[in-house]
Design goal:
- The structure is a single chain.
- With about 50 residues, this protein is mainly α.
- The protein contains three helices and no strands.
- The chain is globular and about 35 Å long.
- The termini are far apart.
């Protein structure tokens, strides 16, 4: 497994991704479409 280079996301981007999830889009689709890691995305949801 190759290691990804660390990426920085703005607070606005994180909030937008959480809103998509809250509005019914599946985690799997969001992660795939925006090339996110599941760990990062789940953390954003927990913190919102």
């Amino acid at each position: 497994m190759t290691k990804r280079e660390r990426r920085i996301y703005t607070d606005e981007f994180k909030a937008q991704m959480v809103k998509l999830y809250e509005n019914g889009k599946s985690k799997k689709d969001i992660i795939r479409e925006y090339d996110l890691t599941p760990t990062a995305f789940n953390t954003w949801i927990k913190r919102s």
